UniProtKB/TrEMBL annotation:
Keyword Oxidoreductase: yes
Name assigned to this protein: Short chain dehydrogenase
InterPro entries listed in its UniProt record: NAD(P)-bd_dom_sf, SDR_DHRS6-like, SDR_fam
Keyword terms, alphabetized: Oxidoreductase
Keyword Oxidoreductase: yes
Gene source species: Ralstonia pickettii OR214
Family recorded in the similarity comment: Belongs to the short-chain dehydrogenases/reductases (SDR) family.
GO molecular function list: oxidoreductase activity
Length: 260
């Protein structure tokens, strides 16, 4: 067997090691990711193929809805790194453009002005936290109309304004999998958004992708939301923002990237 063939086999086996599974994993575990990157570097060193640079696609026109919020600001900062992308900040009352995600005409208006874009990122959506014993249908409807149908509306309207190969990234949260006290509405809403993402990915045309990011409670939000999340380890918004970059600049669709 020649040296080139032997090197290829070694590289393949190294990538099949458990520590390398991070490259196909949806979970952004900090320790796991660190191990995965070391493993990849070691595997490529076997054949002397450490890359000196990676040319990624540039100059995407990205609309970030909820850009003035804690998570939205971190996502904008992450996507602005390197200056490769044009970021349009959109909010309910702030930003370069404004919209109301609960109204289809309001959602379409800024896109009519902006024209075609390459990516739509949503970090917006309100929920209702409260005890089930006192909850009314009107209370529950807050999350349904805002974070669930609001983000679905962004996808349904926004897809018409995406270039071929564009992407949609929505936001859910850890309570979609981990129930908490007074969290019936957030759990139902987040699970609904994730279900929509998985199904929509099967039908979107023109190679348009759709994913969701599901962060745990943010470090910056612990003062307000910490009592709802006893024993949960928070993550900084900047760490959660990495998953949005993965969704925008990556190739996967129908994924839920869990952070924390």
């Amino acid at each position: 067997m020649n040296r080139s063939r032997l090197g290829c086999i070694r590289l393949q086996r190294a990538h099949e090691a458990p520590a390398c599974q991070v490259f196909g994993d949806e979970h952004f575990g900090q320790q796991q990711a660190g191990n995965g990157h070391r493993c990849r570097a070691q595997a490529m060193a076997v054949v002397g193929a450490i890359p000196t640079g990676f040319a990624r696609e540039q100059d995407r026109k990205i609309v970030v809805i909820g850009a003035s919020g804690t998570l939205g600001r971190a996502v904008v900062a992450e996507l602005e790194q390197g200056g490769a992308h044009e970021i349009i900040r959109v909010g309910h009352t702030q930003g370069e453009q404004q919209l109301d995600i609960t109204n289809a005409d309001s959602v379409a208006a800024p896109f009519d002005r902006l024209g075609q874009v390459d990516a739509i990122v949503s970090t917006a959506g309100n929920l209702f936290f409260g005890p089930l014993t006192k909850m009314t249908a009107a209370d529950f409807n807050v999350g349904l109309q805002d974070k669930l149908l609001g983000q679905v509306r962004l996808a349904l309207v926004g897809k018409h304004y995406l270039n071929d190969g564009g992407s949609i990234t929505l936001t859910t949260g850890i309570v979609g999998q981990e129930a908490i006290a007074q969290g019936a509405n957030p759990t139902a809403v987040n699970a609904g958004v994730e279900g929509f993402v998985r199904a929509a990915a099967c039908e979107l045309p023109r190679s348009i992708r759709i994913n969701a990011v599901s962060p745990t409670v943010l470090t910056e939000s612990m003062e307000a939301y910490g009592p709802f999340f006893p024993g949960f380890e928070p993550v900084p918004a900047a760490r959660a923002a990495l998953a949005y970059r993965r969704s925008v600049e990556g190739v996967q669709s129908g994924r839920v990237y869990r952070v924390g």
